[in-house]
Amino acid sequence: MLSSPATLSSLPEIIDGLPNISGQETEVLAVVNQDAPVFLPSTNIRLEDIKAVFAIALHMHQPTIPAGGDGGLISNLQYMFEHPNEGDNHNAGPFAYCYSRMGDFIPELVSQGCNPRVMLDYSGNLLWGLRQMGRVDILDNLKRITCDPTYQPYVEWLGTMWSHAVIPSTPIPDIKLHILAWQQYFAAIFGWSALARVKGFSPPEMHLPNHPDTLFEFVKALKECGYRWLLVQEHSIETLTGQPISHKHLPHRLIARNSQGETISITALIKTQGSDTKLVAQMQPYYEAKTLSPQQVGNVLIPPIVSQIGDGENGGVMMNEFPGAFKQAWHEMANQGGGKSGVVGVCGTEYLELIEAAGCKPEDYPTCQPAGQHQIWQQVSLENLQPEAVENAIAELKQSNSNFHVDGASWTNHISWVQGYENVLSPMNQFSSLFHQKLDQLLPTDSSKYRHALLYNLLLQTSCFRYWGQGAWTDYAREIYRRGENLL
Predict the structure, then answer these.
(1) How far apart are CA 318 and CA 324, in angstroms?
(2) What's the mean pLDDT in 391-403?
(3) How far apart are CA 271 and CA 248, in angstroms?
(4) Which listed residue, 175, 272, 290, 336, has the most CB atoms within 10 A of its CB?
(5) How far is the C-alpha of 135 from the C-alpha of 189, rounded, in Å?
(6) Where are the alpha helices (DSSP H) in 83-160?
(7) Of all helices (H) and strands (E), which one includes residue 267?
(8) DSSP class of residue 166?
């Protein structure tokens, strides 16, 4: 075990023209698997002074596309700047500002005596794209609130998949590769100490797998990579008896059971339902928290938490309404007890550390599982679980109930990330299997060849190549597949 992040030498962000996404797995795992509290030593919030809390996260992403002048890989943001007259591309400037502005808002609010909090979720490709574009100004602004001890207690970074892959349709062997690639690249930008503080995970599109084996491998990968909790969408989970959850403002214990009968669990904070960006832009979680009172968990009375995440840059409400509403809320809290009593904002890890220091134990949290799993477990004997029995149960359920599926659930119920996208999913699965056949165990992960192939594997799994429908975006996916296959 390495003693501390301080003993490690800093990583280059770019190696051989590629983002630094592999090769330091041993160091990454040593840094992220340390148990020291992250927020407790610096938090200015005392549990006994507060009745309810809220936490907001801003999700930021731009895909990487093969659309540079020479067909090279560039950020979609760069493409927007270069083609301002297409579609919504005139928003490139406002988007770039949104990626940077927390670096201005947090220092400004702190200097005015406020006690702000924000959680940030940036995909690996967005961070790489900013570097490719030479937008050091944005990265430096983010470094200020991430690394400067004056501002770091107000900001929490959430880990995610490196290239915004939705987990239920990501090949299982690649889930951990995305998680580690994001961690290594984050450490290259912000340093090992900053990485050691990343303890919460934000799944792209809030997409939670409900296939027992995918969920189990996902939770196992999260825990192996040092994560203590993840954000889940309210309607993507159910109680262990198949009911809608009734304590959405308390942390839950998400139970993952695989088809071999093994179980594993992780803490989940619940993102409540509703129009995500609008709720965040108008600071609705703060106003909802004002209606709540402490609740009992185990033997401890704790403040409930309203958790919400929305795109940090997308749509008029985020670009225009959010800055004013964000600042107004923190000033209101500052005027009603210095922002440290009554209803206050928190970061997710800060909240969990505070309630656990007060005697709350994860085993006391209400339990949950992904929506639809109760139907599976009703069909099979839990005493003698076999993969075949689970697959048979799934097949029978699909036949008897046209609404049943194991594609997982995300922030929206009206979009499938699977149906109608065979032309992207087949190459994606093919390339992944080729990648593991040809490179696993055969090439060191710090070799340029491995890193290059890994990049194409991760990029091909970006959800945008499905979310934006057939056409240019599925063509991008096919081109990435073609180049990746040539490499292999």
Answers:
(1) 10
(2) 90
(3) 8
(4) 175
(5) 13
(6) 92-100, 102-111, 124-132, 136-147
(7) strand 263-271
(8) -
Exposure letters 229-257 (e unless 16+ CB within 10 A, then b) = bbbbbbbbbbbeeeeebeebbbbbbbbbb
Residues 411, 467: Cα–Cα separation, whole Å: 13
In this structure, what token pair is assigned to residue 375?
A: 């139907």
> Tens digits of per-residue pLDDT, 124-147?
999 999 999 999 999 999 999 999
168 DSSP 8-state letter: G
pLDDT of residue 470: 67
Closest CA to 334 of 324, 346, 343, 321: 343
Name residue, tokens 């403002």: 249
On the 0-12 / 13-18 / 19+ scale of CB atoms within 10 A, 280 is buried
Pick from 354, 364, 273: which is nearest to 53 by CA? 354
3-class DSSP state of 470: coil
As for how many domains the chain has, the answer is: 1
Residue 274 binned pLDDT confidence (cut-offs 50, 70, 90): low
The token duo for 182 is 């994001």
Residue 409 is predicted with a pLDDT of 57
Looking at residue 75, its pLDDT comes to 97
**Per-residue pLDDT tens over the stretch 400-446:** 988 888 876 554 454 443 455 456 677 888 889 899 998 887 889 99
pTM: 0.95
Residue 329 forms part of a structural domain: yes
211-237 pLDDT, tens digit per residue, is: 999 999 999 999 999 999 999 999 999
Residue type, 147: C
Could you tell me the CATH number of the domain that includes residue 356?
3.20.20.370
Residue 41 has pLDDT above 60, yes or no: yes
**Measured between alpha carbons, how far is 352 from 370 in angstroms, rounded to an integer?**
22
- 87, part of any domain: yes
Q: Which domain holds residue 350?
A: 8-368
CA-nearest of 329, 237, 229 to 279 is 329
Domain-located, residue 411: no
Neighbours of 422 (CB within 10 A): 10
Chain center to CA of 80: 24
Instruction: Write the DSSP symbol of residue 13.
Output: S
CA distance 318 to 307: 17
460 in a structural domain: no
Q: Which two tokens stand for residue 142?
A: 């983010």
Six token digits for residue 57: 């996260």
